[in-house]
Amino acid sequence: MTHATKDTEVLIVGAGAGGLILALSLKEIGIQCRVYDAVPELTAVGVGINLLPHAVRELDELGLVPALDEVGIRTKDASYYNRFGQHIFTEPAGEAAGYPWPQFSLHRGDMQMVFLNAVRERLGEDSVVTGHRLTHVDLGDDTVTAHFIGPNGEDLPSVRASVLVGADGIKSALRKQFYPDEGDPLYSGLTIWRGATPMPPFLSGANTVRMGWMSVGKLMVYPIRNNIDGQGNQLMNFVATLERPRPDLYDWNAKGRLEDFFPTFKDWHFDFLDVPGMLQKTDPILIYPMVDRDPLPTWTFGRATLLGDAAHPMYPRGSNGAGQAILDARILAGSFKRHGVTDEALHEYDVTRVEATGKVVRMNRANPPDAILREVHERSGDKPFERLSDIVSDEELRAITERYKTVAGFQVDQLKRRRSLV
Ligand SMILES: Cc1cc2nc3c(=O)[nH]c(=O)nc-3n(C[C@H](O)[C@H](O)[C@H](O)COP(=O)(O)OP(=O)(O)OC[C@H]3O[C@@H](n4cnc5c(N)ncnc54)[C@H](O)[C@@H]3O)c2cc1C
């Protein structure tokens, strides 16, 4: 059934970080919208995620920082070690690095619930509709009609809007309709096991530490909730990465097995962290292939466009997935503010973000921050070093992270200088 009149001005498909921040941003500028998600109920799923200062700036403008402070951790620094426990590099993060905005390390579910609660409070309970899986859209001249099925595959009434935004994640139905020949996401040859478990704080108590290198096992560890048991323990998140010839299912909730990756890490001894102990007591462990997709030439067809992982899924090597989705949302809202809900606004959004996010996707393949680990691994021949300065200088290491910050849009001076997006 197609309604003759519009049901909503902007129809957002997907209640992840991208979709929810777009809803909050549209409310801020007085544009009516509604969010539809496939799941019957939105629950706090996932494990750890990082929000870097360029994203937190946007969340601050939406008044969300106090709620994030209640659930997450203000990150103080980022460290890099080789697999023999030797320190390579540490740099300050968030406010400690001179940003006027913090970096947050937190549980993805906590993040999503902060955003969802704000949407329900500010836009009303009926602004987020669950149990609606988008199947396809019909494009009109200045409208778009969305077709949905319910949890049991039943047809649901279609919904008509001035603009539809597909923020429906890496398996986006809208992207599939626009690019039917694209196929599966592209497997990097690397698989990720992740999980979280109570552990005592290490180093600064708010550090993101990266260790090892892909070919010999890479590990990233960071706390995502403080004092979870009244005894000072934190919920510690880990992401273990190993080469694996074939990808597993692209299912964010798929369970992995300890024995498939533990042997690589069983002898890792760090004076600040019991790696084998942490891995052994984590339950559940989730598995996900490291995938992305090639950048697209355009995200916009008629009155429908893509946003977030639907538009530019990227390797999770620079803590930028949620951040780039949030930037998309704010830039799209800014275009609507300037041009109204029009073709012109969609065009401006498309040309700006397709190019900018394409650079981040490519940078995440070649030289994300963990390229620091690659340099030391290769130059040391994967052996303990006597003196780090004999193989790499501090300036070289700093240049890797600074280049990444510039491309991803969070180099400190660049971020302080840039104007508000909405
Ligand atoms: C279940 C889940 C767990 C995750 N866990 C982690 C994690 O632990 N760490 C991490 O760094 N990243 C995780 N991610 C990815 C991370 O959330 C994103 O990379 C990032 O936040 C960008 O968000 P997004 O809004 O573009 O997409 P997503 O966060 O993927 O949100 C997409 C939303 O669209 C909905 N959707 C999908 N298809 C349809 C459809 N056809 N119709 C309607 N709705 C649809 C999904 O239910 C989901 O709510 C997870 C994503 C998901 C969906």
From TrEMBL:
Keyword Oxidoreductase listed? The answer is yes
Question: Which Pfam family would be a valid example here?
Answer: FAD_binding_3
Q: Which InterPro entries match?
A: FAD-bd, FAD-dep_Monooxygenase_BioMet, FAD/NAD-bd_sf
| Any one GO MF annotation of this record | FAD binding
Highest taxon, organism lineage: Bacteria
Domain (FAD-binding): residue spans on this chain: 7-177
Q: Which UniProt keywords apply?
A: Monooxygenase, Oxidoreductase
Matching entries from SUPFAM superfamilies are given as:
FAD-linked reductases, C-terminal domain, FAD/NAD(P)-binding domain
Q: Does the keyword Nucleotide-binding apply?
A: no
User: What PANTHER family does UniProt report for this protein, alphabetically?
Assistant: 5-METHYLPHENAZINE-1-CARBOXYLATE 1-MONOOXYGENASE, MONOOXYGENASE
Q: What is this protein called?
A: 2-polyprenyl-6-methoxyphenol hydroxylase
